[in-house]
């Protein structure tokens, strides 16, 4: 049985999204209820979850739910072990009767059900601001478990023997809960591919690497890197997410006729067809934050690439959409007459496909006067058929884009 310090027991007993400084600046990290649970009155039934991780391609994204898979195989036919969260009973020596309490520890699993419960699902958070949402070699990150409470993986400040969990933001400032993504092999730079093997180096001191024995451990042994004990793959639970956004013409709105309100639908249209729903939605948010293709349903069809530097309008629209139920109508009150356009994303991954209708809308004179910019990027919000804040983002004629 693992040696557990008194301080760790006390810590356990007492105890998202763009950057870790948001966590550091709070006095505590509050435990959350399991957000995968649905209200009793809800008729939402998620699609059955697959029993294995899908393949992926492309760069790894911050905020995208991942499995942390150790790369050691004691024989070629054996399967690999993934990092997960578990609870174990221990005796509390500060109780007069040595009452049993429970603490959280990281362990290994081959049970794919740990993905469904989120105990085996993790997200990387950048310690510093990430301009484009991509994970790069050399980045300092926080590793957050996605089960209820969102505990952070850290180096035990009272022992160098094993990693533990924390909700204490001070552990980030002292670097116990900060990790650096190292490449394997060699000294690579740039974006981390979702199929790459990496080393996870704790930043407190001494270059300790996360490794595997019977349980998760720390090591500085080069042999552990070579044989796979200290090598990891950070595999997206829903594989690769493909996302594109479009301005879609909806209806004419005529305010002089006394019409002051109309309705649109906002949310994930086909949520029931998606497996690992919460994971899929987190992958969608991460993908849009890192950048997406934007277009408009009008002739001629033109699309632009929105980089992570300009993705804030789309990412905030997605965040609001994920809080809504598509089956419920949303009332809006346009202030001008014309053709109502709504911005919608189409997202596809091995976990499912769906249209995601957002609450971002504009009104133009007609279908010939289409919106020229992705959400939030109009030079003048009152002139959607006009120039954008950046010329390369404009989807209209040269004369219109030039203002």
Mind sketching the topology for me?
Blueprint: H1 6-13, H2 21-24, E1 66-70, E2 82-91, E3 100-109, H3 113-116, E4 122-126, E5 140-145, E6 152-155, E7 163-166, H4 170-173, E8 179-183, E9 197-202, E10 209-212, E11 216-219, H5 222-226, E12 232-236, E13 242-253, E14 262-265, E15 267-268, H6 277-290, E16 291-296, E17 303-307, H7 312-321, E18 329-332, E19 338-349, E20 352-364, H8 398-401
Parallel strand pairs: 13-16
Antiparallel strand pairs: 1-12, 2-3, 4-5, 5-8, 6-7, 8-9, 9-12, 10-11, 13-19, 14-18, 15-20, 16-17, 19-20
Keywords:
2 domains; alpha+beta; hemolytic lectin cel-iii, domain 3; 403 residues; six-stranded antiparallel sheet; single chain; disordered N terminus; Trefoil (Acidic Fibroblast Growth Factor, subunit A)
Protein described:
It is a single chain. The chain is α+β, with helices and mostly antiparallel strands and 403 residues long. The protein folds into 2 domains: 6-32 and 47-236, Trefoil (Trefoil (Acidic Fibroblast Growth Factor, subunit A)), CATH 2.80.10.50; 242-401, 2-Layer Sandwich (hemolytic lectin cel-iii, domain 3). Helices cover 13% and strands 31% of the residues. It contains 8 helices and 20 strands. The chain has helices at 6-13, 21-24, 113-116, 170-173, 222-226, 277-290, 312-321, 398-401, and strands at 66-70, 82-91, 100-109, 122-126, 140-145, 152-155, 163-166, 179-183, 197-202, 209-212, 216-219, 232-236, 242-253, 262-265, 267-268, 291-296, 303-307, 329-332, 338-349, 352-364. The strands form 6 sheets. The protein has a 6-stranded antiparallel sheet with strand order 1-12-9-8-5-4, with no helix packed on it. Strands 15-20-19-13-16-17 form a 6-stranded mixed sheet. The chain has a two-stranded antiparallel sheet with strand order 2-3. A hairpin with a 6-residue loop joins strand 16 and strand 17. Helix 6 (277-290) runs antiparallel to helix 7 (312-321). The protein is elongated, with a radius of gyration of 24 Å. The protein starts with 5 loop residues before the first helix and ends with a helix. Mean pLDDT is 84; it is low at 1-19 and 25-42.
């Amino acid at each position: 049985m693992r040696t557990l310090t008194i301080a760790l027991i006390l810590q356990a007993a007492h105890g998202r999204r763009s950057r870790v400084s948001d966590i550091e600046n709070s006095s505590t990290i509050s435990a959350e209820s399991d957000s995968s649970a649905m209200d009793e009155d809800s008729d939402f039934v998620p699609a059955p979850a697959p029993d294995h991780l899908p393949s992926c391609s492309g760069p790894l994204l911050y905020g995208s739910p991942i499995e942390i898979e150790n790369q050691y195989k004691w024989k070629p036919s054996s399967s690999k072990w993934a990092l997960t969260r578990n609870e174990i009973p221990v005796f509390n020596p500060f109780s007069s009767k040595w009452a049993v309490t429970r603490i959280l520890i990281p362990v290994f699993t081959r049970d794919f059900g740990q993905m469904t419960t989120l105990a085996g699902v993790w997200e990387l958070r950048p310690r510093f601001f990430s301009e484009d949402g991509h994970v790069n070699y050399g980045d300092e990150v926080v590793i957050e478990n996605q089960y209820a409470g969102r505990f952070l993986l850290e180096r035990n400040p009272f022992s160098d023997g094993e990693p533990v969990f924390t909700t204490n933001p001070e552990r980030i400032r002292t670097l116990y809960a900060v990790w650096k993504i190292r490449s394997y092999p060699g000294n690579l730079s740039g974006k981390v591919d979702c199929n790459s093997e990496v080393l996870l180096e704790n930043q407190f001191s001494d270059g300790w690497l996360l490794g595997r024995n019977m349980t998760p451990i720390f090591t500085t042994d080069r042999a552990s890197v070579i044989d796979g004990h200290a090598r990891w793959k950070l595999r997206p639970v829903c594989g690769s997410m493909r996302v594109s956004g479009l301005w879609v013409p909806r209806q004419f709105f005529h305010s002089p006729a006394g019409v002051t309100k109309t309705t649109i639908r906002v949310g994930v249209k086909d949520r029931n067809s998606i497996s690992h729903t919460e994971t899929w939605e987190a992958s969608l948010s991460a993908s849009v934050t890192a950048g997406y293709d934007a277009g408009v349903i009008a002739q001629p069809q033109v699309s632009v690439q929105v980089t992570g530097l300009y993705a804030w309008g789309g990412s905030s629209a997605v965040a609001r959409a994920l809080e809504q139920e598509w089956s419920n109508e949303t009332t809006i009150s346009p202030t001008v007459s014309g053709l109502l356009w709504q911005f919608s994303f189409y997202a596809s991954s091995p976990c499912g496909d769906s249209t995601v209708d957002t609450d971002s809308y504009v009104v133009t004179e007609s279908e010939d006067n289409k919106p020229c910019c992705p959400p939030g990027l109009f030079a003048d919000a009152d002139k959607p058929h006009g120039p954008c804040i950046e010329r390369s983002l404009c989807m209209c004629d040269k004369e219109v884009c030039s203002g």
